[in-house]
Predict the 3D structure of the following.
Amino acid sequence: MFRRPLIITGMFLLSICTAAAQAPSAEAMTAARSLVTTMKLPEQYKALLPAILLGLRRTLTQDRPEIERDYDSMKPMVDAAFQPYYTAMLDDVAAIYANNYTVAEMRDMETFFQRPVGQKYLEKSPIIAQQTTKVTQDASHKAADDLRTRLTEALRQKGHKL
């Protein structure tokens, strides 16, 4: 009796998993790479390297000047070593966009990001995201404190000792 719905559900889930595993088309990847470039993600990812190097520098050089000099001289080698990771990161992000948007949607988004309002959005979005995160965290903390107080009082009224 339950076999038929179970089989149908299984086939549905299998089709979803198979669809998600399909690689985006070449056209979708081209549109996604163009969108990623317009969104200035390559520049953002390039900006990650100095922070990575700074973290590694402290660990590897141990504040020893002779090691720091040699470490600093290795910048060209480090840039070359980072390139495959950088390229893979951009390709992976492009694939995410290609898997979630149609080619037409990505072209529309790219058109938006090329306009002044789109450029302003790209410029302001990190700051806005930071501010939004802070507001959300603050509200969550306030709500948790208030709920804790109310629940504690309600449980005490029911005779629980807290």
User: Anything to note?
Assistant: The first helix runs from residue 3 to 21. The radius of gyration is 25 Å. Residues 116-162 form one domain.
